[in-house]
Automatic annotation (TrEMBL):
One Pfam family named in its UniProt record: p450
Lineage: Bacteria, Bacillati, Actinomycetota, Actinomycetes, Streptosporangiales
Taxonomic superkingdom: Bacteria
Family: Belongs to the cytochrome P450 family.
Protein keywords: Heme, Iron, Metal-binding, Monooxygenase, Oxidoreductase
Name listed for the protein in its UniProt record: Cytochrome P450
Organism listed in the record: Actinomadura sediminis
Length: 400
């Protein structure tokens, strides 16, 4: 019999929400056989797991892969550490990656976004179909990160392919079949590049993010070269496609409810709240794993020690037990007290401010210029991944 949770199935990928509902209602702790892992699908259970790293450890990685860290030949990055090592590293990283540094990017990002809108308008004027995801949402986070990290203009063209290679490997959960060839070479090239940047910043301080990270000091502790490199890796792997998909999902969701789209275009002060609603309904990160450090019994089912447990954020964020009977519906004015779009607990997304800034600027400009912007879902292509939800291609409508 088919498994109710089959993230490798195209029908599930197209619409995972009925399966999530069945899991929440009938089997809140579910065992998947091949590959072997367990799922948690209710909001309260996922929330509790993210906040209990002593039981649900990140140290074995976040996918089903039994040796995710070894597969890429990496030392553990921030996202794969447990307290207390994680706590110390996060404090140091937070010293360099501050909300002030993020906020300072707004003007530069807005200029970039306007230029991308002008590109799409030109494509439409020439009789073509602009691709909202490829031409608009995707370039923005790569640009923002390159800018933040201090990648000079001349090297920006190399940065884009590295980002794509890394996100492709990640979407596959670093599966052995994809761990060969060009993508792995591209990631190695990216590491070598940032290794050189770090060495240069150590020799000569600078005020970009890598400069700030190499200089950060808390209680006499400093970040090692690997810590800085690992942080760059997590930012690129976790901060690009996720942000792009938040923007694209937002436009797609609004195209499903034109009254709410009109409301948002007329009152951009609603956009920051709406972004959380987009993330709740169509989260860029649908699932991430932990490994149990002891047997855990939940809803009468025992999960053994050493088991991979997938926290289904995409399901938890639509749980009626948390969000009420309208949990499945878009409401850009919904008051959201807590959600799992950026996870929770020790690993709560450190880039959430940057992601929200980019998505806000993107939607303010896009809805301002084209209040009827929409998407052609019939000709769209989705990412196929158990972990992320989003687009490869999403043709735009209503531009021009
Ligand atoms: C909409 C966009 C984004 C989403 C949905 C998202 C989602 C997440 C999630 C779910 C986690 C938690 C992982 C866990 O619990 O194991 C996380 C952590 C993280 N994110 Fe994001 N993220 C986004 C954007 C960004 C951006 C823009 C950056 C930085 C440039 C970033 C950097 C990070 C880092 C460094 C961590 C690790 C934090 C830690 O382990 O302490 N993310 N993100």
């Amino acid at each position: 019999m088919a498994d109710v949770y089959d993230p490798f199935d195209a029908a599930f990928q197209a619409d995972p929400y009925p399966a999530y509902r069945r899991l929440r209602d009938d089997e809140p702790v579910h065992r998947h056989d091949d590959p072997p892992f367990w799922t948690l699908s209710r909001f309260a259970d996922v929330w509790a797991a993210t906040r209990d790293p002593a039981t649900f450890s990140s140290a074995q990685g976040l996918t089903f892969h039994p040796d995710e860290i070894g597969a890429l030949g990496l030392a553990p990055t921030l996202v794969m550490l447990d307290p207390p090592r994680h706590t110390a590293l996060r404090r140091l990283v937070g010293h360099g990656f501050t909300p002030r540094r993020t906020a300072a990017l707004e003007g530069t990002l807005r200029e970039f976004v306007r230029a991308r809108i002008a590109d799409m308008e030109r494509t439409a004027a020439d009789g073509g179909t602009p691709d909202l995801h490829r031409d608009f949402s995707s370039p923005l986070p790569a640009f923002a990160l390159a800018h933040l990290l201090g990648v000079p203009e001349a090297d920006r063209a190399r940065f884009g392919p590295w980002v794509r290679a890394l996100t492709t490997l990640q979407d596959d959960g670093f599966a052995p079949a994809s761990m060969a060839g060009d993508a792995v070479d591209a990631v190695a090239e990216m590491f070598a590049y940032f290794g050189d940047v770090i060495a240069a910043r150590r020799a000569e301080p600078s005020d970009d993010l890598i400069g700030a990270l190499t200089a950060a000091e808390v209680d006499g502790g400093r970040l090692t070269d690997w810590d800085v490199l690992g942080f760059c890796f997590v930012m690129v792997a976790g901060g690009t496609d996720t942000t792009a998909n938040l923007i694209s999902h937002g436009v797609a969701l609004l195209d499903g409810d034109h009254a709410q789209r009109e409301r948002l275009a007329a009152d951009p002060s609603l956009i920051p709240g709406a972004l959380l609603e987009f993330l709740r309904l169509e989260g860029s990160v649908q699932a991430l794993g932990r490994t149990t450090t002891r047997p855990v019994t939940l809803h009468g089912t025992e999960i053994p020690e050493g088991a991979k447990v997938m926290m289904l954020f995409g399901s938890a964020n639509r749980d009626e037990r948390e969000f009420g009977p309208s949990a499945d519906r878009l409401d850009v004015t919904r008051t959201i007290h807590r959600h799992l779009g950026f996870s929770s607990g020790a690993h709560f997304c450190i880039g959430s401010h940057l992601a929200k800034l980019q998505a806000r600027v993107a939607l303010e400009e896009l809805l301002g210029a084209h209040p009827r912007v929409g998407v052609d879902l019939d000709n769209a292509e989705r990412i196929m991944s158990p972990f992320t939800r989003g687009w490869v291609s999403l043709p735009a409508t209503g531009i021009g």
